[in-house]
Design brief:
heterodimer, A: 474 residues, 5-stranded parallel sheet, B: 197 residues, alpha/beta, Aconitase, domain 4, 9 helices
């Protein structure tokens, strides 16, 4: 048995410590070993070019896992089975990742795979994402995987090349930020509202330089889909990563998934994973407390995810820092967003495209119709989510309500594949970013939960889901 | 090429251009519609695209960067939290190709900062009063000395900015960080063995 360390550590420190190939010094950053490298078509082509230029091979193709999600059309193929790419360049990008993965022996869940999906939906579904791992991807929402107690963060393309060639990254040790949320969430308040509320309070750069650990009874009570939603948006307050200590909820989710250990190996893994929690004597560099009872359904009103209000609240007035955002959005300070006319509703993205998100939206849309002149896109996060939703008949609910049931992908969250809103259109979106033009040039975005998005789909206006939930209770 | 590049970035003198906005995100720096490229060159024409151009490529009438001369003003002065959002390295690629060599702000988003340093784009973090002076004095002459981590603002003063030793070392010598990692191959092998990876 190795000697027990007497220092009390946080969850982050434990995972960090386990992956040090070389300690940080005054002159050089730490060399951190990476357990899982997720890849997609957008941020990898230039890394493979660099690798080739330097005559290097992929060190551990078995620790890489790839998919296609950003530039892929979510419409059905044409009558000849051809995918309807937005541009030839998009097609070329997808073909490039296919070729690179083939050449280097990397498993790619491409068009033919039953597991293809948004990279941050697919990884957990396959059980590739596991507690205590270090996970990276050329994608800022890699923080999603922290929901399993992994240290997971986004990297740039140069670093994608580093990991391909060495399975390692140079890292300086981040600070830790504890976010404690206690209490029971009210009806209609979801994980999305929790994280929007948190970002609204700590600010769009409140987590810069830090790894967040979310804890407290509210987080404990969440299922894995909800924890993923919370961790997913850690980057939206600037944090490097977000983490939740693994527990029985985590292990139940993972057990039996294709890539997790089986049999006695599973038992050993779980025994180890149970040690991945912050010791009672350990402390964070910073700690912020929240009460679940103070969180209501939230929406954004501006052009970054820190501009958040409760849906029944007024937009702040007398705040010069938001005036250009309000000008872009066409909203007035001091006014509520209620009854603001919506043009598009998007239900999807690595934040909110999992089965529980679709169930929540379908619960409200069932036996109802979407408002006239409103476009509603429902985009499952993966083929697995699609299958599950279709088996439950959720697709029928969406289609009968008047929504589009599309194929899995990032879709209108980033709009790279042609799924975009028109200039000036207002989108209520379950995605993660409301930056200017994010969902199409000059489009306007309000971020919200799947429940809120579904309510807006019915009324055609910015609306709270609470009246619908109450009506369905009667 | 690498040598030349690092030499150029070791110390340089240029003029500032102000974009007095906070939280300039990577979607503003380069919109997602241009990310289907498999190249890293030639992205300057897409830099701040939605600010500069209409969708059909014609120059916007109210282009806020209309008076920017990237050849002459290679240093941007921006509000806090510059580069927030996505991990796209296309953002520093686009800025560099557009002509920018350094950016002065009170705070940078982590991934953007990291990506910039990997490409020789210098994030210069300063206190608020430096930004205020630069905003009040557009087109200020500045000198950026990476080796000494020093920003000199003409008629205002010298300011040290934070930059880790390793980045300075790599930038000033044109060292590829991957080479450094690969020099530790034995340690990586040993780690994999020790942890049965």
């Amino acid at each position: 048995m190795p000697q027990q360390s007497h220092t009390e550590s946080t969850l982050f420190e434990k995972v960090w410590q386990r992956h040090l190939v070389r300690e940080e010094s005054a002159e050089t950053p730490a060399i951190l070993y990476i357990d899982l490298h997720l890849l997609h078509e957008v941020t990898t082509p230039q890394a493979f070019v660099e690798l080739k230029k330097q005559g290097l091979r992929v060190r551990r193709p078995d620790r890489c896992l790839a998919t296609i999600d950003h530039s892929t059309p979510t419409s059905a193929p044409d009558e000849n089975g051809k995918r309807r790419y937005v541009t030839e360049q998009a097609r070329k990008q997808v073909e490039t990742v296919q070729r690179n993965c083939e050449e280097h022996g990397i498993v790619l869940h491409g068009w033919d795979s039953p597991h293809r999906g948004i990279v941050h939906v697919m990884g957990p579904e396959l059980g590739a994402t596991q507690p205590g791992m270090t996970i990276v991807c050329g994608d800022s929402h890699t923080s999603t995987h922290g929901a399993f107690g992994a240290l997971a963060f986004g990297i740039g393309t140069t670093e994608v090349g580093h990991v391909l060639a060495s399975q390692c990254l140079l890292q300086s040790k981040p600070k830790t930020l504890g976010i404690c949320i206690e209490g029971e969430l009210a009806k209609g308040v979801t994980a999305k509202d929790v994280i929007l509320h948190v970002i609204g309070k700590i600010g769009v750069d409140g987590g810069t330089g830090s790894v967040i650990e979310y804890f407290g009874s509210t987080i404990r009570a969440m299922d894995m889909d909800s924890r993923m939603t919370v961790c997913n948006m850690s980057i939206e307050c600037g944090a490097r990563a977000g983490m939740v200590a693994p527990d029985d909820t985590t292990f139940e989710y993972l057990q039996g998934r294709p890539m997790v250990p089986q049999g006695v190996d599973w038992d050993a893994a779980v025994a180890d994973w149970r040690t991945l929690k912050t010791d009672s004597g350990a402390s964070y560099d910073q700690l912020v407390n929240f009460k679940a009872t103070q969180i209501r359904p939230c929406v954004t009103y501006g052009t970054h995810p820190g501009m958040v209000i409760a849906i029944d609240e007024a937009i702040p007035s007398n705040d010069d820092s938001i005036s250009s955002a309000l000008e872009y959005m066409g909203f007035e300070p001091g006014k509520s967003l209620a009854d603001e006319a919506v043009d598009v509703v998007f239900i999807g993205s690595c934040t909110n495209s999992r089965i529980s998100d679709l169930r929540a939206a379908a619960g409200i849309l069932k036996n109802r119709k979407v408002a006239k002149n409103l476009r509603v896109l429902v985009v499952p996060g993966s083929e697995e989510v699609r299958r599950e939703a279709e088996a439950e008949g959720l697709d029928r609910i969406f289609i009968e309500a008047g929504a589009e049931w599309r194929e899995p992908g990032c879709s209108m969250c980033i709009g790279m594949n042609g799924d975009i809103a028109a200039p000036g259109e207002l989108v209520v979106s379950t995605s993660n970013r409301n930056f200017k033009g994010r969902q199409g040039p000059q489009s306007r975005t309000i971020l919200a939960s799947p429940l809120t998005a579904a309510a807006c789909a019915i009324t055609g206006k910015v609306s709270s889901p609470l009246p619908f939930l109450e009506a369905d209770n009667d | 090429m690498t040598e030349q590049y690092s030499e150029r970035n070791l110390e340089f003198r240029s003029y500032t251009y102000n974009i007095p906005l906070e939280n300039i995100d990577t979607d503003q720096i380069i919109p997602a519609q241009f990310l289907t490229t498999t190249e890293r060159q030639g992205l300057g024409k897409f830099c701040f695209f939605a600010w500069r151009f209409n969708q059909d490529g014609t120059v916007k009438e109210n282009n806020p960067l209309h008076d920017h001369q990237p050849d002459h003003q290679q240093v941007l002065v921006v509000g806090s939290n510059f580069g927030c959002g996505s991990s796209r390295e296309h953002a520093p690629w686009a800025l560099l190709d557009y002509g920018i060599k350094a950016i002065i702000s009170t705070r940078f988003a982590d991934i953007f900062r990291n990506n910039s340093l990997k490409n020789g784009l210098i994030p210069v973090t300063v206190e608020e009063h430096v930004i205020s002076f630069l905003q009040e004095h557009p087109n200020s002459e500045v000198n950026i000395d990476v080796s000494n981590r020093q920003l000199t603002v003409m008629d205002y003063g010298d300011f040290e900015f934070p930059l880790d030793s390793f980045s300075v070392f790599c930038l000033t010598r044109g060292i590829d960080q991957l080479d450094f990692i690969l020099q530790n191959e034995q340690e990586i092998n040993a780690y994999e063995q020790r942890y049965n990876k």
